[in-house]
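We store chain and fold; thus.
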Amino acid sequence: MLVSSLFVLVSCNNKQQATTTASTNKKEVENTVYASTVIPFFDHWKLILGDGSNAGIANNFENKDFFYTTNDGKDNWIVFKAPNGGDTHGTSNNTRTELAQAKKWYPKTANDKLTATLKVMNVSATGDARVAASYAVVVGQIHSADKHENEPLKIFYKKFPGHTKGSVFWHYEINTDGEDNSKRWDYSTAVWGNNFSVVGDTENTYPEEPEDGIALDEEFSYTVEVKEGIMTLTFMSQGHKTKTFTKNLITSNYTTKANIPLQTQALFVPIGQDGVERKEAYTGEGCFFKLGAYNQTNGKSPEINKNWCSGAETHGGDIQKQYADGNYAEVWFKTASITVSDAAVSNKGYFEKND
């Protein structure tokens, strides 16, 4: 009888423990706030993670290393994290946790739009200050899905170590004429603070902090609209002047070497990136939006490319060590929306090529 009683007691305890564990797990699942609840637009995107993998359409999905939600005491935010070093997607040298639009559209017939409200929470703690891409993250893009797969738009945030305020700027990358894309280059335009070309004099010295810059944890918004070949950009942030820019995506301003801007002559021409753009620019190429954290700081030697190779700490690709000492990019998004024109078509070919 004693043995039977002990058996019943143990069985009851095990049953109670199992019930408690099951209830706890159920509660954790019920309490998870997914990104697709915060911003319900994930049917339009494929999610690329910081380990180079494609998570697909990320409804009811999270990954605690790269993509999840948090609350700042007031609002829910979607967190995108990307280390300085690790596996990358496609041919890029940089890691990203980023949404890539599942459809593509053509600039000449486009009527497509992307909006976002975000704040950057971290940029790399290390890098070479002479390298323009150091301490930077791209938070929104337009990318071509065809031919060279160049980028008519990249929206950057960059902050040097020790500074309180960083810069927001945007890039146009030429759609290089001919088959050789190695001579492509970017032209950078400042929104708040400096543009891409403002760098340090030495590896560990920094330029002056921008007076009208944006701090980490400070909200700003962007709107990107492409209609009938014209890209219109609007940037807004409380306490800062609203800025609007336009760029023609179907007629090039850079068809001869004489058209290369002075900024580009200083940054890119000395390293052999002195190409020209085809007259039609991005006409006839399928383009698509991207949104998230595309870390621009990497561990490659600046001797390879003084504009894009940062020589930053990567701990041999160990993600947790990079997260522990600040060698990563982290961007939070509060709101976003996308408008997709009826003329947009499947972007399946881009993912098949790059996944």
In short: The longest helix spans residues 2-31. The helical segments are 2-31, 35-38, 262-267, 319-324, 348-354.
